[in-house]
Structures are given as C-alpha cells and as structure tokens.
Amino acid sequence: MFISGEDGRTRAEQLLAILRQIDQYVSSALDHERGRGCQAVYEMLLKFRMLCTSGFCPLGCHGGCTHNKSVDRNLHGNFANFPTAFVLPSRDALSLGDRVIMYLPRCADTNVEVRKLSTQILDLLFSIALSLPKPINSNLGVDMEMSYLALSSLEDVIAILKSDASIDPSEVFNRVVSSVCTLLSREELVAALHGCTSAICDKIKQSAEASIQAVIEFVMKRKDELTESDVSRITQSLLSAVGHVTEKYLRQETLSAISALAENTNPKVVFNEVLATAGRDIVTKDISRLRGGWSMQDAFCVWKYWLISRLLLLCTYFCDFMKLYI
Fold this sequence. Notes:
- There is one protein chain.
- By secondary structure, this protein is mostly helical.
- The chain has helices at 8-26, 31-54, 68-76, 84-87, 96-103, 112-131, 144-163, 169-183, 186-194, 196-200, 205-222, 228-244, 248-264, 267-284, 295-323.
- Helices cover 71% and strands 0% of the residues.
- Helix 6 (112-131) runs antiparallel to helix 7.
- The longest helix is centred in the C-terminal third of the chain and has 29 residues, at 295-323.
- It is globular.
C-alpha cells in the first residue's frame, strides 16, 4: 500500500483488499480473533490516514519529516505537479457502505474491547472520508455541517466507552447507528443495506439482533431517498438473511425489518420480491424438509398480519370520516 500505489485510488483499492482479507477474523465466532481482527483494521486505517495526510517515510517517521519529500519524488515522482485529487483517493473509493455494514455488528459485540475498537474504526473511516476530495461532478448528497456534528457525536461515544465500560451497550449502539445514519451518503446507505445479509447472519446473536435494528432505523430515517430499485435489492438481501437464519426469533426480527421496509417505502415492490423468492423456492427446493421450516411461509404470515393491520387502520379512518357527516 505504501510503495506500490501510483495514485490515491490504487492505494485505496489496496487498502480494501487488505481489509477484506481481515474480514473473516472480524466476524469470527471467537472473541480473541474478533479482537485481533478489529485491532488490525484500526492499525491499517491509522496508517492509511497518515499516508493521506503526510505521505510515507520508509524510515518510520510519523507526520512531516526531512526524508518525506525526497522519498516521495524518488518513488512516485513529484506529486507537487499533480492536483490533490490525483494524489488522494476520492470518498467513493473507500466503499464506505460495505465497510460500515462489516464493522457495525461489532459495535454491539459481547466483548467490551471489540465494541470500543469497532466504534473507533467507524470514526476513523468517516474522518478519513470527510478529509478526502470529492469526485468531479460529485453528487454525494452529504450535508457537511450535519456530518461533522455526527462525527463529533461518534467521538463523544468513544470517550464514554473509554471512561465507563459499564455503560449500557444498547444505548451506545443506538448512538453509533444514529451518527452513522447521518454520515452515510445515499449511495453508501444503499450499499450498506444491500450488504446487510452477513450482518444479520452474524455469529454473535447480540450483534445479529442489533444489526436488524440498525437496518430498520436506516430505512425509517432515510426512506425518502430509496428508489424502487433500491427497495427491490434491499428486500432481496433481507429475504436472503431470512433463508439463512435458522433461529426462530432472529427470523421473526428479520421479517419485521421487511415489514418496516414495506411500510416506509413501496409495499408493492416488497411483496413482489417476496412472491418471486417463494416461487423460486417452490421450484428449486423441497420446502417440506427445510431446517427450521420454510421461511417464506413465515414471510406470508407476517405479510397477512401487516395487511390486516393496514385494513383495520383504513376502516378506523373511514369510520371517523363518516362520523363527521352523521
């Protein structure tokens, strides 16, 4: 990453390749592997931020040093003649949506140190992202003032975690999710929601439950930004999670997330995806022998109750309307 990257995007691609190799440890069922994985990610991001802000000195210097400029010229040419956008990656090169949904479950981990590290990782990711140049003709849709306020809130959470390990983990996670929801651009949000299957199927039950709640909050807070195509892809990811989760409670929670998606976006698109998935299952699987039962049957039950509740609400509105004229 330090010596072979010719421009910002190449270095970002190398960073992502390294981080993806560490993903298996970050999502491990073993506490010590998750801890080491998160520590490795944090160290890599620290080095990447140093590289973006002050360059790299092979002699081990941190920040500005007398060797830095000469080293950069010899290895990479004189970057002083290039625009900043060439030397540094753009924000979209970091694949923030994919990275966020990978580390977010760890913010609700059963291990205190993992929770601290993962929150620091998210803070570091967004602080790097906010310092990078926007792509030409960029339409990230990020409110910079709100983003810095959310980043400040995330740093407050880190300070609390460092000073008081006894704080309620669910309260901390809710604050992290709220900040992340503000910091993500529309495209990053969609990428995170589309990649939610692995988070919901996390090996740590507590993290899986928290991931479902995060998905619901993302949908409810940013529903107006989701297109029909986005809703379709997100529904597919949630249905995939429903099919992979064997525990009844987690399956019901995931179905609740699908209901929330339908209620807050386009129910027709969501139901069409449910029907399409059910049709594929009937053709390709022996649904009578599936472990934990056929997940789509549960989905139809949830959908039935959702429709009944909508009809009852509609009847209530109609009765109230008629009372005005009786």
